[in-house]
Design brief:
alpha/beta, Multidrug-efflux Transporter Regulator, Chain: A, Domain 2, Rossmann fold, 3 domains, six-stranded parallel beta sheet, three-stranded antiparallel beta sheet, 15 helices
Length: 328
């Protein structure tokens, strides 16, 4: 597993760390002074200021200590060591109950990683086990990471989205072939957001609650094994969109010898399913009370869209149709 050691610029008072992690202030002080778990910056007024890395460590120490590890034996371990311990099967009672295959997740942004690793977030995603394999501070660190565990889903938190950020994300996806990518942002031009959605990314604007984030992540997963069997596949993550509307429109207009105009009908079905998939995501954005239903609908439409994309590839191979973007 890979964890960047670059410190975050954000600093938090001990009370804020306590509120975020659910660890009493007195306990945090003991872990710091007696066991040397943290090295907070101290102001002239003797205030302790903790970095985002300290918040990450506190969450992991809490989880492991609740699972029976003595704080004295784990306090001086680094984040990578602590995460490896927290991902062991016998150390995951607070993570998600997995009816089937667990989902591997790489997270860019320490604040987002802290949310994902919290017990509150885990409770909101009941269907699949999340295995956080990599945590990177930012896109620069992610671009240099090895991602040895080959995570299936990439979750990115950025403050602003601009074209260079989109380009960096696309390059990262091409290098590591993530099945799905979710981008959470604060500010962005609408044109950039639409371009990212068009390229198959799931894009959401803050503020987004832990429960909404859990449902959004759920929407890219098979909800249970029964549905995976229903669709004849064992994969846990629904693949992102392969073909643009322009490519599908071109294929739909090609005359072939296949009975019932299969290329046209399949291309149209993929386009309709992709539209409904995005519509369900937007409903997920706007209706928190119905988030679970729309997560379910998005996973169903995404699964069907992915299967019809596979069917289109077989048709294209049979008929000699070029599915590459921009092909004549």
């Amino acid at each position: 597993m890979n964890t960047s050691a670059t410190p975050s610029t954000a600093l938090y008072r001990i009370g804020a760390v306590s509120k975020t992690t659910g660890i009493p202030v007195s306990t945090l002080r003991i872990w710091e002074t007696r066991y040397g778990a943290f090295s907070p910056v101290k102001t002239e007024g003797k205030q302790r200021l903790f970095a985002e890395l300290d918040v990450s460590k506190a969450l992991l120490l809490k989880q492991l200590s609740q699972n029976g590890h003595a704080i004295s034996t784990i306090a001086n371990l680094d984040l990578a060591q602590l995460r490896r311990m927290s991902n062991l099967p016998h150390n995951t009672p607070n993570t998600l109950a997995a009816p089937g295959q667990s989902v591997s997740l790489a997270v860019v942004g320490l604040s987002m990683a802290n949310r994902i690793e919290s017990k509150k977030f885990a409770a909101g995603l009941k269907q699949n086990q999340i295995n956080v394999t990599d945590v990177l501070v930012d896109l620069t660190a992610a671009s240099e990471a090895a991602f040895a565990d080959r995570p299936q889903v990439l979750l990115i938190k950025v403050n602003t989205l601009q074209t260079p950020v989109h380009t960096a994300i696309q390059k990262l996806i091409q290098q590591h072939a993530f099945a799905q990518t979710i981008v959470i942002y604060n500010f962005a031009p609408d044109a950039v957001v639409q371009a990212m959605k068009f390229s198959g990314l799931i894009v959401r604007r803050e503020p987004i609650s832990d429960s909404e984030l859990a449902e959004l992540l759920q929407s890219v997963l098979f909800v249970d094994q029964a549905r995976a069997q229903e669709f004849g596949t064992t994969g846990a993550v629904i693949a992102s969109r392969k073909y643009s509307d322009a490519t599908l429109s071109r294929v739909a207009g090609i005359s072939t010898n296949v009975l019932c105009e299969c290329p046209k009908h399949v291309a149209e079905l993929i386009s309709q399913l992709a539209s409904f998939e995005e519509y369900s995501q937007e409903c997920l954005n706007q209706n928190a009370d119905d988030a679970h239903l729309h997560a379910y609908l998005r996973s169903i439409s995404g699964t069907a869209r992915s299967l019809f994309e596979n069917a289109l590839e077989k048709i294209a191979q049979h008929e000699g149709i070029d599915l590459r973007e921009g092909a004549g």
